[in-house]
Amino acid sequence: MSTPPGADYDGAWKVALQTHLQQGLALLSPGLHARLDWAQPPEFLDRELQQLATDGETGRRTVDLLVRLRSLDGATAWVIIHVEVQSRAGPDFTQRMYRYYARLSDRYATADITSLAVILRGSPAKAPRGRTVTDSAATVAQGGPAARVMEYAQQGAECALNFRFPAVYLEDWRAHVDRLTHCARANPFAVILLAQLQATARASATERRLRKTALLRMMYEYRHARDDVLAVFTLLDWLLTLPRDEEQAYLTAVKEIEMDWSTVRVTSIERFAHERGLAEGRQYGLAEGRQHGLVLLRGVLMDQMQSRFGSLPDWAVARVQAADESRLTLWSRRVLDAATLDDVVADAAPPN
């Protein structure tokens, strides 16, 4: 199945791993996760990683992250995470993984270096030189799939080389969706894995919208922190793209979820959704799309003003209806903390 138009798997995964590395490794590589001291923040080394890549390796649809962390024994640990976003690992994949490892070993001779491959799509059975092994007792205890090992080997007349590294195939998780759903109660990265599995599954546009909505609702039902909800909302947008009509239905569902679960009205996620709708209207030059976005934003703003301050007087409704996009956006931020209705629309010109 081809990647849906607009889907940005590589961008989504880079952000997901940078913002939720600890939670991600807890699911993808529990043995590695257990060895690291998470009281020390990870350091992402983009510049150093760029120096490792050769000119011939640039432009590939991959996400590479180089992270410096501390292990529990106080030593420096270098972790290189390679996310393959092609349909499956190609015939040169293991060789490329070895080259990264060799360059890191040459540059940082005393460091503890770990290479981890995450392959988003494709059958594990078709992996080059891949075979199933158990990563650690933690993998089995969590009820997830066993980790795999891939290898790159060279055999000469006198010398031999064998490089082995752990590989995570997300397709292995498809048989463990119930376990991922359970893990999502405490780990928002499980929702990201579920979204990726949904993104590569065959489904109609309506089915994708319903699944996308269900994943977002899950974040609220499990009472995740606001920052995690907003991050997952953004990642869902990248992973589960929708055609325009289904997108509008999704934005309506977002509003309903906010009303059902949010204790603070007009949250960041809701404002982001509607501001994004306006931006898309401008981007594509669709006057009707922009106008529809304004109608949605006005409706949301009046709903939340009424929730905060009760029934709206005619003058307040008139000001909202007459406001342009910039004022509506400003007021949608103000309504969170404003003490009175006047404070929300203080800079509005009196209606004619």
Can you offer a commentary on this structure?
- By secondary structure, this protein is α/β, with parallel strands linked by helices.
- It is 51% helix and 14% strand.
- The chain has helices at 9-19, 21-28, 30-35, 46-52, 93-107, 137-141, 177-183, 189-199, 205-221, 226-239, 244-261, 268-283, 287-309, 314-322, 325-334, 341-344, and strands at 43-44, 62-70, 76-84, 112-119, 131-132, 148-155, 160-169.
- The protein has a seven-stranded mixed β-sheet with strand order 1-2-3-4-7-6-5, with helices on both faces.
- Strand 2 (62-70) and strand 3 form a beta hairpin.
- It is elongated.
- It starts with 8 loop residues before the first helix and ends in an 8-residue tail after the last helix.
